[in-house]
Automatic annotation (TrEMBL):
Organism: Pseudomonas synxantha
Protein name from the UniProt record: NADPH:quinone reductase-like Zn-dependent oxidoreductase
């Protein structure tokens, strides 16, 4: 089958090549990928930024989102059958959605929302699960609370705004001048033009901050939180608790303790908490998100769609940091019938 892969870590070194079809375990579902989407995470993985905590082997197929059709199931699979339309963020140790086929653990999958296209569905899993795990699972955001979401026009931001409003929160966010009204239409109550205004000079007494940017924004975010507030970052620095969750070595745990010591110390001084969230695959949570999508509460936001042959260009486009919502890759496989016949004949 064809796939977009890398043979080593480095910038702009991906290629489209032929690889063996994935092996199907007892709890795996074989999915023919119809669409996938690009995340900043894909670029970071390809550059080797996560090689200490995610030790992938090469050649490595990139890709962390998928929407497609089930074409085979393992012997222990009970929730899915061939022909089902599904979507998912595969587990972090088994990424590879930039490909014709992928084997995904059953518990990471959910049925695709019926009211959206494959391309729209593919834009959602990673960012929607990130927003859910920050706002619902970690922050336990309550009706009437105030939440500040950095980068409201980004992939996570566009979904987090919609989810926070559904939860009954008052939402503030940042974006560039050209996107202010567009982001406000997503539901944000306060939209700050970061090119003209400093959020830390405008906002105060917030309960939760979702940070997806750098160290400067992270530290400034502390100043707008009320005592007891929560600063939750998806861009780091990682914490000792994260090292424990990932079952990393004591050395890496020590490194993460040192890396996050500064922000944790400053958070304690401000009487707020700091947490790092590295989203995980979860088909059950994705099923709850599906209900919100089918009821019209959460709507996918797509910036641009690229053909599979232009995957490298799609990655470069996302790296520029200017996309509004998600960048999607549509897969059309002229030889799909031949590949599926080979799979079914195994």
């Amino acid at each position: 089958m064809k796939a977009f892969l890398i043979d080593r870590y480095g910038k702009h070194n991906g290629r489209i090549g032929e690889v063996p079809a994935p092996e199907l375990g007892a709890h795996d579902v074989l999915v023919q990928v119809h669409a996938t989407s690009v995340n900043v995470l894909d670029s970071k993985i390809s550059k080797g930024e996560f090689k200490l905590i995610l030790p992938y082997s090469f050649p490595l197929i990139l890709g962390n989102d998928l929407a497609g059709v089930v074409v085979g199931v393992g012997s222990a699979v009970r929730r899915f059958k061939p022909g089902d339309e599904v979507y998912a963020r595969p587990p972090q140790e088994r990424i590879g959605t930039f490909a014709e086929l992928i084997a995904v653990e059953e518990n990471a999958l959910a049925l695709k929302p019926k009211n959206i296209s494959m391309e729209e569905a593919a834009s959602l899993p990673l960012v929607a699960l990130t927003a859910w795990q920050v706002l619902v699972e970690t922050a336990r955001l309550q009706k009437g609370q105030k939440v500040f979401i950095h980068a409201g026009s980004g992939g996570v931001g566009t979904i987090a705004i919609q989810l926070a409003k559904h939860l009954g929160a008052f939402v503030a966010t940042t974006t560039s001048t050209n996107n202010v009204e567009w982001v406000r239409a997503l539901g944000a109550d306060v939209v700050i033009d970061y090119k003209k205004q400093n959020f830390e000079s405008i906002l105060q007494d917030y309960d939760v901050v979702l940070n997806s940017l750098g160290v400067d924004e992270l530290e400034k975010s502390l100043t707008i939180l009320k005592p007891g507030g929560q600063l939750i970052s998806i861009s780091g620095p990682p914490t000792p608790q994260f090292a424990q969750q990932q079952k990393l070595s004591w050395v890496l745990g020590l490194v993460m303790r040192i890396l996050s010591s500064g922000i944790r110390r400053k958070a304690r001084k401000k009487e707020v908490s700091y947490a790092f969230v590295f989203m995980r695959a979860d088909g059950s949570q994705l099923g709850e998100i599906t209900e919100l999508i089918e009821s019209g509460i959460i709507k996918p936001v797509i910036d641009t769609t690229f053909p599979f042959e232009s995957t490298a260009e799609a990655l470069s486009y996302v790296e520029q940091g200017r996309s509004k919502g998600k960048v999607v890759i549509k897969l059309v496989w002229p030889n799909s019938k031949h590949v599926l016949e080979n799979i079914n004949g195994m």
